[in-house]
Amino acid sequence: MKTLKTIAATAVLASMAAVAWAQMNHGTHGGGMMMNMDQMQSMMATMMPSDGDTDAIKAFKEADMEMMRGMAVNYTGDPDVDFRLKMIPHHQGAIDMAKVALQHTADEDTKLLARAIIAAQEREIVEMQAWLAKNRK
Q1: Where would one find the signal peptide in this protein (predicted)?
Q2: What is the 3-state secondary structure (H, E, C) of the chain?
């Protein structure tokens, strides 16, 4: 089962690298800072499961990968729509990571911050979804 999860994670990360590479070379980016392939591979490697990972690290990595999968959508050409389509999974990733923190921390400041993040990000997701329902063509 662990091997199957590793294979699945590798496949997801490889597909994300392909999407990132395609977007990076699309030519429509306005001079923004883009990761080179070494940086992308390094970032993806940090999300791969490792034998020494604690339960918290495993949960954070799962949240990272789910967020990246959610953000791997094609651009529509409408910056208002694209912004929201990318931000919704990004916000959901913040919620998921905050929930991991709540499960694994004893620190009250961290719990307070995590709860605030969950409340704010959930509200903003609802706002973005409502905007998309009303305005997306």
Answers
A1: 1-22
A2: CHHHHHHHHHHHHHHHHHHHHHHHCCCCCCCCCCCCHHHHHHHHHHHCCCCCCCHHHHHHHHHHHHHHHHHCCCCCCCHHHHHHHHHHHHHHHHHHHHHHHHHHCCCHHHHHHHHHHHHHHHHHHHHHHHHHHHHCC
